[in-house]
Write a structure and sequence with these properties.
This protein is 33% helix and 24% strand. By secondary structure, it is an alpha/beta fold. It has 2 domains: 111 residues, 3-Layer(aba) Sandwich (Rossmann fold); 108 residues, Rossmann fold (3-Layer(aba) Sandwich). α6 runs parallel beside α7. The longest helix has 14 residues. It is elongated, with a radius of gyration of 18 Å.
């Protein structure tokens, strides 16, 4: 089996490696990103019905400004984000499974019409239903790092890389091209279709997981390695 490499930032990278071990896939962790907090101020919670969370990083990096918002219910993109929100003292009212856009209609039906989105500097635009207002506050950034020297031989020899975000896909593709590594040596497993688009073309193979969950991505990686 070719090397399977996770490049997402910590602590997600370690979580992917550990899930790989639990499911029989030897994933090598080489984070190419570091999550950093951004200074921000929380508005009055009276202005909103709920907090919208598209990543656990918003909670991990939110700092003391989160304290005044814990009285608001949290609407979370997935179970991992929801658990992080619970651990931080939020009551989770809604947990999605297919991206933030997918949970907006249900949130609207539940009466959550004024949402405060806590996000990173790079985030996917949302199209709210009629009558819903979403204000976005940036509370963290993801800083990219170059491909380290110890990872380059693995990539040149042929590897499968797990891509968890569009930003990761674009950065990885640029790094590979900059290093002169043949894209045909690398197979990509992407968490969502928009990530595959950001990765571009010319890879040995590229596929998208059937669900935006780490378990589905790892199952896809196993299939692609066996193929």
């Amino acid at each position: 089996m070719m090397p399977v490499i996770a490049i997402r930032p910590e602590p997600g990278c370690t979580a992917t490696v550990e899930l790989g071990v639990a499911t029989g896939i030897a994933v090598r962790g080489h984070p190419l990103f570091v999550v950093e907090p951004v200074a921000w101020q929380a508005p009055s919670p009276d202005e909103y019905d709920a907090v919208l969370l598209g990543s656990a990083n918003a909670v991990r990096q939110g700092g003391s400004a989160l304290s005044s918002l814990r009285e608001l219910p949290a609407l979370c993109v997935g179970e991992a984000t929801a658990q992080t929100a619970r651990d931080a003292g939020f009551e989770v009212a809604l947990t999605g499974a297919g991206g933030l856009q997918a949970i907006l209609p249900e949130a609207n039906a539940m009466g959550f019409d004024r949402l405060l989105r806590l996000s990173g500097e790079a985030h996917v635009p949302l199209d709210p239903p009629a009558g819903m207002r979403i204000d976005t506050l940036v509370c963290y950034r993801v800083a990219a790092r170059p491909v380290p020297a110890d990872l380059q031989p693995l990539l040149r020899g042929g590897a499968l890389v797990l891509l968890h975000s569009g930003e990761a896909a674009a950065h990885f593709a640029a790094e590979i091209d900059g290093l002169g590594i043949d894209r045909k040596r690398i197979t990509l497993a992407c968490l969502a279709p928009r990530i595959a688009v950001r990765a571009g073309e010319g890879w040995a193979a590229l596929s998208t997981a059937p669900a935006a969950e780490d378990a589905a991505l790892l199952a896809l990686a196993r299939q692609m390695c066996q193929a």
